[in-house]
Design a protein that fits this description.
This protein has eleven helices and two strands. By secondary structure, the protein is mainly alpha-helical. The longest helix is centred in the middle third of the chain and has 17 residues.
Length: about 190
């Protein structure tokens, strides 16, 4: 810890590595090493180690996740979107069921100006979790700013949003939130009936 505080990254990593895993501080040493690796740009190695720490030492699971999320947030705040995307992409590979990681990845795509990538990601997630209100709100806001026009088989012009919400509403006829966003898409398309 003292080496880390002095900025001696290599020395700190070596010191953490020398601590046996089964020692009373083995879990904490692996946690600190994983955080340090991730902070210094070795995302895959650091996140893999933190993932292993969380699996082996349940008491460090929350600390591991919080550390990685904090690092990704710091990258985002300093507009290092490439690093933030790298972190979130690795997280979703390791924990595909964790919607929060996917949502954060979409947010960074938005910040990068990659609206299409964010839309595709949010659509995919909403097909799996049609009741995810924050995702629905983000997706609809993107649809409102990126009005991609398509023509369906009947020759009726509709936005991508209308097509998506119509499909989701058909699959989830009792989901009020989906119905609201479908209605908003209909309004934007000029279909007020």
């Amino acid at each position: 810890i003292a080496l880390e505080a002095k900025g001696e990254v290599r020395g700190a990593l070596d010191a953490y590595e020398k601590i046996p895993e089964d020692s009373p501080v083995g879990g904490e040493a692996r946690l600190r090493k994983g955080v340090l690796l991730t902070r210094t740009g070795f995302f895959e190695e650091g996140i893999n180690l933190l993932h292993a720490v969380a699996a082996r030492y349940p008491e460090f699971k929350e600390s591991s996740e919080n550390a990685v999320m904090e690092i990704a947030l710091q990258c985002t705040q300093r507009e290092d979107y490439v690093s933030a995307v790298g972190i979130y992409e690795r997280l979703v590979q390791l924990e595909p069921a964790r919607t929060v990681f996917w949502e954060r990845l979409g947010e960074v795509y938005e910040l990068q100006g990659r609206a299409e990538a964010a839309i595709e990601l949010y659509e995919k997630l909403l097909k799996q979790q049609s009741d995810a209100a924050s995702l629905a709100k983000r997706l609809d806001a993107l649809y409102a700013t990126v009005p991609e026009i398509t023509t369906d088989g009947a020759g009726i012009t509709a936005t991508r949003a209308l097509s998506f919400w119509d499909s989701l509403a058909g699959q989830n006829p009792h989901n009020a939130m989906v119905q609201v966003y479908w209605g908003a898409a209909l309004e934007r398309a000029g279909n007020l009936s």
